[in-house]
Each structure stands twice: as structure tokens, then as C-alpha cells.
Amino acid sequence: MQQLLAFIEQRLHLIVFALLQVICGFLNFSLNPFQQASFTQAATAVTAGGNKISSDVNAYFDLKYQNELLQDQIATQFQNSTIGTLLVAGDTITLKDTSRRPLYDAVPAQVVYNTTFKANNVFVINKGKNHGIQKNMGVISSEGLAGLVLQSTANYSTVMSLLNTNMTVIPNINGMDYYTKLLWTNEAPNKMRISGINKLEKLKIGDEVKTGKSSMLFPAGISLGKITKLNKKPKSQYYETEIQTATNFRSLEYVFVIINRDIEEMEALITEND
How far apart, in whole angstroms, are the C-alpha atoms of residue 184 and residue 114? Predict the structure, then answer.
């Protein structure tokens, strides 16, 4: 105890000086609005920087999770189709035919703009020519068909939505292609109609409508939706058929662009035989 008192006595002037510095600093801060503002601004900047870093980290891991989830869901779509097996390399899924030869690539993209309330709806994705995307490439969601690429810039593409009066898809029901039209009637963003199916066809509510083999843009077997209405119109030989789209366009966030590796060769062959 005596040693402690001796220590304090020897350094009393230093201790008093330090206490006075603390008191002066406190008074200067509390009575000086400029100092308060500077401190608050610095604290806010540090907090904002920390929040941004946290937000960026969360966004990175969320996007990574979404890509992984989407890959799994797209893989399911492909496995339900009638073509071959899958190969996942990085972000890209490659669909092989039955001879194990690569046939389709599926390039992931994020939807950055989307409309669902117009007669001719489109959406914009964050992939373009730099990623191998070109006009007339098919686009699918984790749930089913989404649209067709209209045009591309270096890093973005505009896609004609399935909810577009200019979109034409040949539907396949119960394994049979129907050479009729799947129509967007601008009634609701999840409803479409199929015209021209004969009443003699054995269809029922709940039948799944898929892409057929008549298109080179999409793999066969990608879901378009399910039949929700099937009426026999009086004095007509055709059904009045309504489907609910497989893709939920109002919550569309991530898609895959389908690249047919053999499309030029296939188109050239068809042109020769026209």
C-alpha cells in the first residue's frame, strides 16, 4: 500500500495532467457542434461502409445459392425431357443426346426487367453476345418455358415472353404434338389458350402440356403448363382449352438460355429439303 501511495505521489502531476486532458476533450466535444457533427459523420460513414460490405457479401452468397438451386431445378426439367443426360460445368448445363454427344447448353441469366400486363410482354436478362446469346434462342425457367430471345447487345438480351401474342409454340399433350396454337390472350399472366384440338382427342383436366419435337429451339418435354379448362363448344368440333402456365412470370428472377449446338447444321439440312 505504501508503495502504491509513493508511486501516485511521484507521478501525481502526470495523473492530474491526463485527467485534465480527458475533461477538456469531453467539454470540447459536448460544447462544440462542429466536433459532434464530424464525429457523427465519421461514425455514419463507418457504419454505412460496414453495412455495404455485409450487403455485398449477402448478395454474393444469395446469388450463388440461387444459381445452385436453379441448376438443380433446370436439371430436373431436362431429365423430364426426352433427350439424354446432363453435364454440369461451372454455371453451364450441357444436355447430351442418347449417344452422349453434347446437344444443348443452358446458360444461366438473371431477369433485370419484366412486364406481364401488356399484350406483347418482354423481359430483359443480364447475358448477351459476350456470353454466346443470339436471336431466336429459347429461354426456360426452373418451372418451364419462358420465352425466346429477340435481340442481344454485348451484355444484355431482350426476350419475347411466352405471354406475348407473337409467340408461337407447338404443344405436346400425352406424347402427341398438336399442330395448333398456344395463345396468350392477355387475360391473366398465368393463363393461355390452345385452339384447334379436336373433341375426339382424349384429353382431361390436369394433363401436362409440354414442348414437342417440332422445334429446334427447345428440348422436347419442357413444361408449358397444365390443362385447367376443357370445354366442348356447341356446334364446334374443337375443344375450348385453357392452361395455367408452368412458369410464374410475375415472380420470374432467374432463367437459362438454351443453346442448340447443332442448329446451323439442322437448319441447313431442312433448307436443302424444302
Answer: 16
Query: Is 6 a member of any domain?
Result: no
Query: Cell triple for residue 66?
Result: 440461387
Q: How far, in Å, CA of 274 to CA of 270, rounded?
A: 6
What is the CATH number for 222?
A: 2.40.10.340
Report the domain count for the chain.
1
Structural domain includes residue 155: yes
Of the listed ranges 84-93, 125-134, 250-259, the one predicted with least confidence? 84-93
**Tens digits of per-residue pLDDT, 139-191?**
998 888 999 999 999 999 999 999 999 998 889 999 888 888 788 888 889 99
Instruction: Please state, in angstroms and rounded to a whole number, the distance separating the CA atoms of residues 72 and 76.
Output: 6
**Alpha carbon distances (Å) from 129 to 44, 103, 107, 133, 157:** 42, 20, 12, 5, 8
Distances (CA, A) of 172 to 117, 141, 175, 182, 270: 27, 18, 6, 10, 22
Q: Of 37-41, 110-114, 201-205, 212-216, where does mean pLDDT reach its minimum?
A: 37-41
Domain that holds residue 163: 64-272
| Contact of 67 with 61, CB cutoff 8 Å | no
The pLDDT of residue 83: 44
pTM for the model = 0.66
Interatomic CA distance for residues 200 and 219, integer angstroms: 28
DSSP-assigned beta bridge partners for residue 210:
172, 223
Residue 197 in domain:
yes
